[in-house]
Amino acid sequence: MASSSVFFSSQIYLSLRVDSPCKNIKKSKLFGQQLVGKSRTIFITKPNLVKDSLFRKSSPVYASCTWMPCSQIANGAFTLGTAAVLPFYTFMVVAPKAELTKKLVSSSVPYMALGLLYAYLLYLSWTPDTMRLMFASKYWLPELPGIAKMFSTEMTLASAWIHLLAVDLFAARQVYYDGLQENIETRHSVTLCLLFCPIGVLSHFITKALTRARD
Fold first, then answer.
1. How far apart, in whole angstroms, are the C-alpha atoms of residue 177 and residue 187?
2. Region 200-207 average pLDDT
C-alpha cells in the first residue's frame, strides 16, 4: 500500500510514503530517505532560500542590475542603439554627396559607442552556461537549440541587436564609400543594409555590375 502527499506554498515539500515488506529495519537516514520500521518516507526539503538569495546578490549580473531592472536596461539599450544609427543612414540616403555626410560617416564615434554598449550588455547577459550553449555539440560547434535557449532572455536579445546595428552600419558605410569611389547609386543598397544587411550588400554588387555593363 502506498500513499503520497504534496503541499505547495512559498515552501516546497513533497512526501512519499511506501510500505516496505522488509522487517527489522532500524531508524536511519540516508541521502534524504528516512527509514522507519516497515515504512519508508522519501522527502524533498525546501531549498535554502537565504543561501540562494545571497548567491544571487553576490553575482555580477545582480549587482549591475540593482540600480535599474535588467528588463529596463535591455529595453533602453535597444531604443538608444536604434535611434543612434538612424541619423547616419538618413544622411547617406538623403544627401550622399554632401560634405557634412562625408564627415559624419567617417567618424568612428558610433562604432566605439556601440562597441562599449555591446560589451556592457554582454557582461550583464553572460552566465556560466553561455559557452556551453554556444558550443553545445561534441565538435565544439554551435547548435540551433542551444543558440535559441541562449537568446531566450531580453538582455541577450538586446546585446545581439546592438551587435547587428554595429555590423550593419559598418557594412552600409563600406557600400556608401564604394559608391562614391565608383560613382554608383547606393541609396537603395544603404537602406537595405539598415533593414536586411546581406540583401543590401548583394544589391550593391548587382548595382555595381549593372552600372559597369551599361558603361
1. 12
2. 97
